[in-house]
Specification:
298 residues, alpha/beta, Arc Repressor Mutant, subunit A, D-Maltodextrin-Binding Protein, domain 2, 3 domains, elongated, DNA-binding transcription factor activity, LysR_subst-bd, LysR-type_TF_proteobact-type
Length: 298
C-alpha cells in the first residue's frame, strides 16, 4: 500500500490545525482552504482511522477521545518535519521566540540572555513581554515565562524560581521617619499599590493582621518592575520579589528592612507546548535556563 494511502498527509495537516485552533473555519483560514474542504479532509482521515475524531456541535467542535490521543502526536510529528527541513535548508540560523512577564524580562532575562547566545550563536532571540497569558495556538511563540502554579493543559512546565515577596524601599525614604524598625513603621509611609493582596498577606505574616490599607490609594503601575522604579525614586514602599533586586540593594538604591518573606503559591515557570518538547532551539533554551537557576530537568 502506498504511504499516501496509509498516511494521508494533507488530511493530517488539516487535522493538526483544526485540533490546535478548535475550529474548522479557523483551520481553513490558516491553510487557505474552504470550510467544506477542511470537513472533507477530516472525514477522509476519520475513514482511514475508523473512528470519529471530532464531535460536531452547533458552532463548535470538540476532539473525541481518539482525537485527543492523536492530536499531540500529529503536532509533534509536523514540528519535527519542520525542524528537519529547516536544518537542511542552508539557513543555519533559527529564531527563538520568547514571551515573558515584563518584570522577569527586565530584571532577569535581559541581564542573562547574552550568556545563552554566546553558547548558541546560531539561535537568534526575539523577546516580547506582557502580563497576558498567551495562547500558543494563536500567538507565534516558542517558550513563555509565566507566573502561576505550574498547571496549564497541553503545556510542559518547569519551575524556575519561587516568587517570594517582601517590602522594599529607598534608604533615603526610610531615613525620613528615622528608619524602619518594625513592620508597622512602614504604615507611616506611602504604600505603592495598597490594593495589592501581597500587602495584606505580608503584614499578616509579620504580625500586623489589620494594617488598615482600605482607605489608601490603590493606583496600579502595571508591573512589579515599575513599582520597583517608583520605590528607588523614593515615592513609597513597594512589595517586591527581592531576588530580582540584589544589584539595587548592593548599590544602596533599595533596602529590604525585614527578613520576612511571604508567598502565595504563585511561582515563575518556563512553559512550552508539549508537542514541541523535542524542538532543538526550545530544548537548548530550556536546558540553559534551568541550569542557570540550578533546577533539575524533569
Amino acid at each position: 500500500m502506498k504511504l499516501s494511502k496509509r498516511f494521508p498527509l494533507n488530511a493530517l495537516r488539516v487535522f493538526e490545525a483544526a485540533a490546535r485552533l478548535g475550529s474548522f473555519t479557523r483551520a481553513g483560514d490558516e491553510l487557505g482552504m474552504t470550510q467544506t474542504a477542511v470537513s472533507y479532509q477530516i472525514k477522509l482521515l476519520e475513514e482511514t482511522v475508523g473512528e470519529p475524531l471530532f464531535l460536531r456541535r452547533p458552532r463548535q467542535i470538540e476532539l473525541t477521545e481518539t482525537g485527543e490521543q492523536l492530536a499531540p502526536k500529529v503536532a509533534e510529528a509536523f514540528a519535527m518535519l519542520q525542524e528537519a527541513m529547516a536544518s537542511i535548508s542552508g539557513d543555519a540560523e533559527t529564531t527563538l521566540h520568547i514571551h515573558s512577564t515584563p518584570t522577569f524580562a527586565s530584571q532577569w532575562l535581559a541581564r542573562h540572555l547574552g550568556t545563552f547566545q554566546l553558547k548558541h550563536p546560531n539561535v537568534a532571540v526575539r523577546l516580547s513581554s506582557s502580563e497576558s497569558i498567551i495562547d500558543f495556538g494563536r500567538v507565534p511563540s516558542d517558550i513563555a515565562i509565566r507566573a502561576g502554579r505550574g498547571s496549564w493543559p497541553g503545556l510542559r512546565a518547569h519551575l524556575l524560581m519561587k516568587m517570594n515577596f517582601t517590602p522594599m524601599l529607598s534608604p533615603t525614604l526610610a531615613a525620613t521617619i528615622g528608619g524602619v524598625h518594625e513592620p508597622a513603621d512602614l504604615l507611616k509611609l506611602r504604600i505603592i499599590d495598597a490594593g495589592d493582596p501581597w500587602w495584606v498577606q505580608w503584614f499578616g505574616d509579620a504580625g500586623v493582621p489589620d494594617p488598615g490599607l482600605q482607605g489608601r490609594p490603590r493606583s496600579r503601575l502595571g508591573a512589579q518592575s515599575f513599582e520597583a522604579a517608583a520605590a528607588i525614586a523614593g515615592q513609597g514602599v513597594a512589595v517586591l520579589t527581592p531576588e530580582f533586586y540584589t544589584d539595587e540593594v548592593a548599590a544602596g538604591r533599595l533596602v529590604q528592612p525585614f527578613d520576612i518573606l511571604s508567598t502565595d503559591g504563585v511561582d515563575y515557570w518556563i512553559v512550552y507546548p508539549e508537542n514541541r518538547r523535542h524542538t532543538p532551539r526550545i530544548r537548548a533554551f530550556r536546558d540553559w535556563i534551568l541550569g542557570e537557576f540550578g533546577q533539575p530537568l524533569t
